[in-house]
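Person: I have long wanted to understand how a fold can be written as tokens. Underneath my words sits a plain record pairing an amino acid chain with its backbone structure tokens. Those tokens are not coordinates but codes from a learned vocabulary of shapes. I should like you to check that the lines agree and flag anything odd. The protein I mean follows directly.
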Amino acid sequence: MSVREGRRLARSIAVGPHTLTADEPQPISTDTGPTPGELLLAALAACTSMTVRAFADRHAWQLDDVDVVARFDSAGQIVKHVKLAGALDTAQADRLIAVAGRCPVQRLLNNEVSVVTVPTVVPAPRRAGEQPLPQ
């Protein structure tokens, strides 16, 4: 996965053969794509939906549709709404909701994730006639 700068704060994200765009809304930037926070919510919602679907399919349960909506509340907490449609009994619905809370992205977010930043600084090329700085 790599990220390249675009116009203003817009970013082009390459994930294998796929390209996504992230940006910030106007007036901060040009609003050409979702914000990084929205992409995080999308990852959580997509992972939740996929996990619930895979579990229901594996058990041959009659899940017609699973909709997931994720948002940040005013305190910055993530709120996730999971809507299940289908001929499910109470035990099946309860089990699917429990499974929805254990998708890989949510498990990652619920743990304290360590992020290591590896810096690489590339000096600007010298202009013609510039002398190198003394060491």
